[in-house]
Design goal:
Number of strands of chain A: 18
Shape of chain A: globular
Distance between the termini of chain A: 33 Å
Helix content of chain A: 25-40%
Largest sheet of chain A: 8 strands, mixed
Strand content of chain A: 25-35%
Radius of gyration of chain A: 23 Å
Number of helices of chain A: 12
Oligomer: homodimer
Order of helices and strands of chain A: HEHEHHEEEHEEEHEEHHEEEHEEHEHEEH
Structural class of chain A: alpha/beta
Strand order of the largest sheet of chain A: 3-6-2-1-9-11-12-10
CATH architecture of the largest domain in chain A: 3-Layer(aba) Sandwich
Chain lengths: 437, 437
Amino acid sequence: MVSSEARKEPAAIVPDTVVMKFGGTSVASPDDLKRAARRIVAARERGQSVVAVLSARGKTTDELVAMAYEISDAPVARELDMLLSTGERQSCALCAMAIADMGYEAISLTGSQAGIVTDSSHTKARILDVQADRIRAALSSGQIVLVAGFQGVSTDSNDVTTLGRGGSDTTAVALAAALGAGVCEIYTDVAGVFTADPRIVPDARKLELLSFEEMLEMSASGAGVLQLRSVEYGRNHDVRIHCRSSFDDAPGTLVLPESETLERPFVTAVTHSENEARVTLAGIADEPGVAGRIFTALADANVDVDMIIQNEPVSTDHGADLSFTIERGDLAAATSALERTDLATPILTDDRIGKVSVIGAGMRSHPGVARDVFNALGELGINIQMISTSPIKISCVIAVDRVADAVRGLHDAFGLDRDEVLAEDPHGSAHHPRVRA
Amino acid sequence: MVSSEARKEPAAIVPDTVVMKFGGTSVASPDDLKRAARRIVAARERGQSVVAVLSARGKTTDELVAMAYEISDAPVARELDMLLSTGERQSCALCAMAIADMGYEAISLTGSQAGIVTDSSHTKARILDVQADRIRAALSSGQIVLVAGFQGVSTDSNDVTTLGRGGSDTTAVALAAALGAGVCEIYTDVAGVFTADPRIVPDARKLELLSFEEMLEMSASGAGVLQLRSVEYGRNHDVRIHCRSSFDDAPGTLVLPESETLERPFVTAVTHSENEARVTLAGIADEPGVAGRIFTALADANVDVDMIIQNEPVSTDHGADLSFTIERGDLAAATSALERTDLATPILTDDRIGKVSVIGAGMRSHPGVARDVFNALGELGINIQMISTSPIKISCVIAVDRVADAVRGLHDAFGLDRDEVLAEDPHGSAHHPRVRA
């Protein structure tokens, strides 16, 4: 039950309200949907008020996108949103039917009905407000509420908007914040967040907890478990996120404010991406405004830039070399955007690169980590092409065909297969630290 | 352009506004969708303000229904509506993309966004109001408006509702009425309304015009071209309906008020249904209230009853025999509903029956038509099991395996392969009376 205090002060934690989010693989088949429904009902039977956010089933969104491109080479963004928003609605309606068969009353809501108010940036809208009155009323009357993820309604024109790929995570975290839910549970087909990708490192361990900052760095550097924006939203609104498997009951990985993560190891995890490309502009004029023109052109073409390196010109007549990395899928858009500028410099590209990153809040107090990373890669004979660091992350761009070796080597070098040092077990006595995906 | 007068008095005819409705086969493939888009754009290029109502593509609705029954044997009606409403939204979004590629601005609207306000009878909602302000504003700004058919939003709870199978026809006619459109064009995969089903009667003719009353009788007795409720809505709101093919430009069949149909032949068309079943309750008590209990039980089980015959009891101890016909698919529901009553009479059923109907506004002044129908069937050796008449219709229940013979015999007996007698050609000189589907 949502108390009347929660209604007045939505940010106050209401521990008996839980927001559960189920990803596409967790609702793909009728059996999957019924499994999700049972989990929702189980929480309800424990006395919790349950809001569940559902993604589109299986490959539905991909199929809808393909449908759009069968019709048009450049689908209108507003209409793409109208089209893509239907997948999550179907999941929610079907799940409500399954829950009704289990003897509980459930109501499915569109993003608009759930009060997810966004700006008008179709296909990548940002949540401006969550007006959860209808959800609160439904919870108060004992209903289970199912909300179509990934979508909202625009303030100005009352149009359907979508939040971009993975946006259902953000829907769930935003609802948890608005409802003052004790936790936002993100159910996927993996058991939690691992010290590395278990497909590459067989003895990777599931992490019991992570700070928001670590999770942000991991999401930004290749870990696909949580959408970056949902982690930002969780950090900004103080919503703890529990990433766990929809296929078993073992606890997953809890993402918490850093103040609650206590003592942490130097390095928490190794992440990687094999989906990168590098662009180098050789000998650009070393004068103010050039870089601005380049990255404006890229932003206008919707290309997200990851690492940027500019070295000093060796002589004034050579100019500077500027390199940056982007997603490989954006390479064509990036080069054509750059060709339309008046830079008149050669554009060199490399689409055979990848990235490995070492992440850990403990790095802040242990400056030797960078040295250890470079040494480990050096011992494997892996050439580092670019480096980017933050206080809790070191990323290296390397040849794509050495990425798996690098991940295994770094995982080994930092002893990540061994148990973490933890001052407190956040899951209590029922915790099984070695359950895998 | 919609004039400001039209805005104040929506019922006034605004001849340059047209509502076009495209059925599922007319938007099934990408090519079909683009063909519909071209037709919409062509009307816009002729200077018309265009509102297009789209059905779900091809078999989409059937697939969604199947999905629901994979999850639940008895899907919750509210959630079924949420699920089924997505198909039409997809069609509209995709068509808007196609129109944008043709250089025109189009906007897709859900039933709710289009202002289709209904009652709360999920899966069979009735339209209570059409609040077309958003459509008028979009038309005024030069946009083409695409409306998801078959759906609306309920007044009391702001939920998605659907209007029942074929409901997109009603959406289109209701919008035409609200906007004061000159005509509502219903595009399907057939060329119009025929004197009989051309698959059974090869020389069936396309009818140029029909009165609302005739079309109502035809829709009610097996002609699948237009949903019954859309014809009722058209008659009640004086919206002329043009049934035509989405695959060519030939005019189809215009459905008009009877005052505009002028002189009509005795018989306009022969319709049939092979989808019937008969239930007979033998020897029920001949006392007040019995029939009421029977048909209340059937209505509660959502069984639509067509013909009803009750004969007088031959003696007071035998009781009366009551027979009625229903759709064959409802037979199991009907018998189980009747078994739950306390009638304690034998329930006899026959699922091998069909129905042929002869329809024509001219019958009113030509009482010999019934005799001619019975004679024609008698000459074919076809036994008539039940008869039902209206001022402009004669229906006979016969064995299902004689239905095709009966349709051909009646079509021939009334000379329907010959040109109609018409005082005026409503389509002008461009009319091609013999174009077929």
